[in-house]
Amino acid sequence: MNLTRTASSTALAVEGLTRTYGDGDATITALAGIDLAFARGSFTAVMGPSGSGKSTFLSCAAGLDRPTSGRVLIGGEDVTDWDEERRTRLRRERIGFVFQGFHLLPYLSAAQNVALPARLAGRKPDRARVRGLLERVGLGDRTHHLPGSMSGGQQQRVAIARALATEPEVVLADEPTGALDSATAREVLGLLRTSVTELGQTVVMVTHDPVAASYADEVVFLVDGRVAGRMSHPTADAVAGQMAHLDDLVVAR
Amino acid sequence: MSTTTSLAWRSLRHRPLAATATALAVLLGTTLIGSFATLTESSFAASGTDADTLVVLGAVVGGWGTLIVLFSVASTVGITTTHRASEIGLLRTIGATPRQVRRLVVRETAVVAGLAAVLGALVASVSGHALFALIRSGGLVTDHTRYDAGPASVGAAALLVLLASGVATSLAARRATRGPAGVLVREASAEQGRMRWWRVAAAVVLIGYGIAMAVITVAVTAHDDDPYAAMSTSGSSSILVGVGLAVLAPVLLRWLATPAGLLVGRAGASGHLASYNTARRAHLLAGVLAPVVVLTSAAVGTLLLVDIDTRTLPAGTPDSDTINLLNNVVVGMLSLFAAIMVVNAFVATVAHRREELHRLHLLGATPRQVERSVVAEAGIVAAIGVLLGTMAALTTVVPFAIARHEGAVPDGGLWMVPTVVAAVVALTLAAARTSVRTQRRAQAVGR
């Protein structure tokens, strides 16, 4: 297997990923063995009904949660058994995060929030680059504003600029439009799309919104902690239809 | 049980830490004020100089203490209420009227503070007795004067503390419920709430009164035949000015944190975060700054006062012994109280920031970076606090030194200033470190 970072064409891969909570009769299986690979420069949406394991998958991929078994590979490198310290460094240097709740630091300006991952890594932030990223997300005139004085959409755009700041292997987005209205959501999704098309970024987005999923190259459906299907070149209608079908499967069980 | 009351119960069980902070402040406050109140009550049964001594001890000494205690209780209760801004915003959004929210918050405090005040009153009736025994064994009162205090004095102390926490809670709740519902849900933590006029007015009165007493000391009482006249006018200045500055803590912190942050801000990511958090969210950390200022000003002012007094007057006279013991008791009790308030305020503030500190962790900050940034904040707050506190102490030390013919700078005892400063800084940093670590451990267990 090829372990060098630059040579791998897979940004993120999980192999036989399982995660269970509790033990004995009370065991809950959140992930029941998942194999997925996300190619460099791809935009993938992960969808599924509530409790399908979407969030657990993202937590395991990000190194926030340890899988019960299986492997997690970032840029071809197996990070499953890394200790907390190394996984923390991994998160700030090689993974970009976009959360539903934005997760900006309230007392840092837009520019300072974008520069934060570099600072945490002990590097001096590149001002021009931070500025460039904020301009890219359309906030070039708001670099010194605090999150409290921005709208939800603007805050999420700052969060996207922050996620892109370290040129990560993969950007993990957890319901990034969940707290936004549909017009603002389209802007945010457009930004994620262009970061893939123009910058060659890799984006993995967990969502339950068919419209959001239609911005992706491919949709992966999870049901009961297993991969239940895939769809290339998704449209909102096709995704919505598939989701309704999956919901029926869950209800019928 | 009404809806509001049952909601208050549930909410209390959900936030034991904040409730503990309030309870601790009320319990200690009632104990401190109550103990001195029993002396005043005992004075009614005493006669002659004994009665005078007890009144001075109870009313005058207890009076200074009361000022600090009431301020601390009010600020602790204020911190815990302000920290609930987003929850209050949520309640308002789902249709709770401002009145309902205020009632919820006030009832919650009433339950916690009520229990703590009753407990404090019980402790005070024991500790008041002990204080009396100490005073009698020190020969300050004669043997035939007896401890004679019932529930009246400790009850009054408890009521006073309850009243102060009640007023502080309703003011904080009123502030939190002002304005339309929707706006409140937004991350309230970035805003820099403006100071209300009455707060500025109270600070001006306290500082003005303290400075006026200092001026009177130099101009009038320094020339009095009674050597203690100067002490009685200058003695409380440091505490008055200290509390006055503490009332202004949010504004002072915002002004002073920027230059202080420039120094710390160079020290890596943690220093960078700390400098912006202290400057931009001064209202959060002001609750920690306030007791640091009061602790420093009371300790430095009173210790130097006692030192100048023992140096300039022949020791051994019963009068000077009494007064020195008195002053030392005051410094001891108030320092203990203020120290607990510093720790209390830090625990409450870090508990409030759990979500935000976790956010830093998600973004890739190591536990050590998170801890260092909170400790750096504590460092900035401590530096500003001891600076302001020492300045406040000057209003006692300088006039009294002049009155006792030592000039503006006392002839000795200056080593006490860096000692107190070092102790206060160490306490603040330790409080910060312990609260972050406790928080982290609680989170690890909770997961």
SSE topology:
The complex is a heterodimer of chains A (253) and B (447).
Chain A lengths: L9 E12 L6 E12 L3 E5 L6 H8 L7 E6 L2 E2 L5 H11 E4 L11 H11 L6 H10 L15 H13 L5 E5 L7 H16 L5 E4 L3 H4 L4 E6 L2 E7 L3 H17 L1
Parallel strand pairs in A: 3-8, 3-9, 6-7, 7-8
Antiparallel strand pairs in A: 1-2, 1-4, 4-5, 9-10
Chain B lengths: L2 H12 L1 H28 L4 H35 L2 H9 L4 H40 L13 H27 L3 H5 L11 H23 L7 H8 L2 H11 L1 H16 L3 H13 L1 H31 L5 H35 L1 H9 L4 H37 L12 H31 L1
Helix pairs in contact in B: 1-5, 2-3, 2-5, 2-6, 2-14, 3-6, 3-10, 3-13, 3-14, 5-6, 8-9, 8-10, 8-16, 10-13, 10-16, 11-12, 11-13, 11-16, 12-13, 12-16, 13-14, 13-16, 13-17, 14-17, 16-17
Could you walk me through the main structural features you see in this protein, from its secondary elements to its overall organization?
The complex is a heterodimer of chains A (253) and B (447). Chain A is an alpha/beta fold and 253 residues long. Chain A has one domain (10-252): Rossmann fold, CATH 3.40.50.300. In chain A, 36% of the residues lie in helices and 25% in strands. The termini of chain A are far apart. Chain B has 447 residues and is mainly alpha-helical. Chain B has helices at 3-14, 16-43, 48-82, 85-93, 98-137, 151-177, 181-185, 197-219, 227-234, 237-247, 249-264, 268-280, 282-312, 318-352, 354-362, 367-403, 416-446. In chain B, helix 3 (48-82) packs parallel to helix 10 (237-247) and helix 13 (282-312) packs parallel to helix 16 (367-403). Classes of the chains: A alpha/beta (253), B mainly alpha (447). The interface between A and B is medium-sized, with 28 and 26 residues.
